[in-house]
Amino acid sequence: MSLSVETLAVTIGDKRLLNEVSVAFASGHVTAILGPNGAGKSTLMACLAGLMQPTGGRVLLDDRPRGDFERRDLARRVGYLPQEADVHWNVDVATLVGLGRFPHRGRWGETPEDRDAVTRAMAATDVGGFAKRGVSTLSGGERARVLLARVLAGEPDWLLADEPLANLDPAHQLDGLDALRRVAAAGAGVIVVLHDLNHAARVADDVLLLRDGRVVAFGPPDQVLTRDLVAATYGVDTHVGVAPGGRRFLIPTERLA
Amino acid sequence: MNRLGLFLLLIGCLAAAALSVAAGKVWVPLDAWTAADPRSIIIVELRLPRTVLALTIGAALGLSGAVMQGYLRNPLADPGLLGVSPGAAFGAVMSLYFGYAAQAWLLPIFALAGAATAMALLALIAGRSASLVLFTLAGLVITNIAGSLTALAISLAPTPFVASEIITWLNGALTDRSWDDVKLALPLALAGAAILATTARSLDALTLGEGAARSMGVDPRRLQAAVIAGTALTVGASVAAAGVIGFIGLMVPHLVRPFAGNRPGAILLPSALGGALLLTLADAMVRIAPTVSELRLGIVMSMLGGPFFLALLLRMRKGLA
């Protein structure tokens, strides 16, 4: 299983959203994508998820161009958790998670494999306790877990998550990070857009820094989340320290001119 | 929706159909058509085609409403919103305006042409991007254009007679329909329904939004094409046979949704059955009502639908507050 982008470029009008982006993502790893607003993070995710056609370069899945795959086959391999957490109809939790089986479902409805996958996904995200509740009655944290369960139910090789921790309190953010770690530990590749440097330091095996549509750095967090590279990416000075337990933390201290 | 619910809806449709065959200024017992009863002609030539049309049009409007609401993820959507139904009505009005209506078969052709034109315009404006917002706005614009052109036709009507004929048409009805109308509407509505039925699973996926649905393998252009073609056929056929009958597509999906667990794909069949039941019942009621002349079905549905729409809005506002 491999997923990579080669000299990827997206140009809309005369605006370059992505420029010469080449990255090989590793399965079994959590890759965090970081960068200031407008750096091209969501554009890169959209290209990986197949929601946007790059104007240059290509996306390779198992060393084959994305476009060679059938729509349904792609959907089975790559799961996408969009930033918008809207659920438009008040379906119950089990039904919503079951939607994750969409690319697998045959003409004749649910199979035992479908049911097993849904059960596993609900167990992995600990949402089994409210399987029959309507989605509109859930708290933000519960809803985030249910939406993650939906993607996991499809058992994709790759999980793309666009800012899954936005609007969650610190406890639920830690839960979300741990859930992403477990998905990667189970063998899938996880690619996640984050805004918080410390979340990336906690969860990521690889960090991709983007600025103005270009790659600033790509590598393990202790090599990439450095004062110099963070300054080059965000234009802020940071205090980098090591918390008890050996995990590094970063505190932005001031804006650089 | 579970089997019991569907079964009850089916029984309801049959009961409403039986009532519709029997009911009217002259009550005819259902067994009158078997005997060499002179009243059998009322049943076979008047009541039966009218009942079949009511079932067909009700089902077509209920189904297309359910599909539109699921597709636009908007519980206030109605086939009229797409502009297809106003387009079809404008086509029919043009045939009345130019006096072609004397030829009975020309009006349906004009109505279908109007629906097809509205559909083609939609595809032209919104087709390439396949974005829901653009699609909705394009539908609203077409609705407005068709509505203002219709108003223009009324104000420029050559004689008061034509104006009143147009206004009568705009308030749909099933009075004096024959098997010819059934032969026209039924095959078109069935073809449209078959196309709309294929959208069910994609509508489920759209619950999670456009991006997630596409990432799950939904082809947005194919879905949009199916929604446009299916809606144009079902709504075009309905307007051609009965004029404008509003609010069925808005009301019925709401009434059946709670029983189907709110899943958009699961309400298609119940909405078709519910629409058939509602319209057939309403059409029987306008004949039973003790009024001097028969109430117009389109007006009755609007009088039911207006307050329903308002109640829906108030409930949604409470939900949002």
UniProtKB/TrEMBL annotation, chain A:
<protein>
    <submittedName>
        <fullName>ABC transporter ATP-binding protein</fullName>
    </submittedName>
</protein>
<keyword id="KW-0813">Transport</keyword>
<dbReference type="InterPro" id="IPR003439">
    <property type="entry name" value="ABC_transporter-like_ATP-bd"/>
</dbReference>
<dbReference type="Pfam" id="PF00005">
    <property type="entry name" value="ABC_tran"/>
</dbReference>
<keyword id="KW-0547">Nucleotide-binding</keyword>
<dbReference type="InterPro" id="IPR003593">
    <property type="entry name" value="AAA+_ATPase"/>
</dbReference>
<dbReference type="GO" id="GO:0005524">
    <property type="term" value="F:ATP binding"/>
</dbReference>
<dbReference type="InterPro" id="IPR027417">
    <property type="entry name" value="P-loop_NTPase"/>
</dbReference>
<comment type="function">
    <text>Part of the ABC transporter complex HmuTUV involved in hemin import. Responsible for energy coupling to the transport system.</text>
</comment>
<keyword id="KW-1278">Translocase</keyword>
<keyword id="KW-0067">ATP-binding</keyword>
<dbReference type="InterPro" id="IPR017871">
    <property type="entry name" value="ABC_transporter-like_CS"/>
</dbReference>
<feature type="domain" description="ABC transporter">
    <location>
        <begin position="3"/>
        <end position="237"/>
    </location>
</feature>
From TrEMBL, chain B:
<dbReference type="InterPro" id="IPR000522">
    <property type="entry name" value="ABC_transptr_permease_BtuC"/>
</dbReference>
<dbReference type="Pfam" id="PF01032">
    <property type="entry name" value="FecCD"/>
</dbReference>
<feature type="transmembrane region" description="Helical">
    <location>
        <begin position="48"/>
        <end position="68"/>
    </location>
</feature>
<comment type="similarity">
    <text>Belongs to the binding-protein-dependent transport system permease family. FecCD subfamily.</text>
</comment>
<feature type="transmembrane region" description="Helical">
    <location>
        <begin position="132"/>
        <end position="154"/>
    </location>
</feature>
<keyword id="KW-0472">Membrane</keyword>
<keyword id="KW-1133">Transmembrane helix</keyword>
<feature type="transmembrane region" description="Helical">
    <location>
        <begin position="264"/>
        <end position="285"/>
    </location>
</feature>
<keyword id="KW-1003">Cell membrane</keyword>
<feature type="transmembrane region" description="Helical">
    <location>
        <begin position="80"/>
        <end position="99"/>
    </location>
</feature>
<protein>
    <submittedName>
        <fullName>Iron ABC transporter permease</fullName>
    </submittedName>
</protein>
<feature type="transmembrane region" description="Helical">
    <location>
        <begin position="297"/>
        <end position="316"/>
    </location>
</feature>
<feature type="transmembrane region" description="Helical">
    <location>
        <begin position="105"/>
        <end position="125"/>
    </location>
</feature>
<keyword id="KW-0812">Transmembrane</keyword>
<dbReference type="InterPro" id="IPR037294">
    <property type="entry name" value="ABC_BtuC-like"/>
</dbReference>
<keyword id="KW-0813">Transport</keyword>
<feature type="transmembrane region" description="Helical">
    <location>
        <begin position="223"/>
        <end position="252"/>
    </location>
</feature>
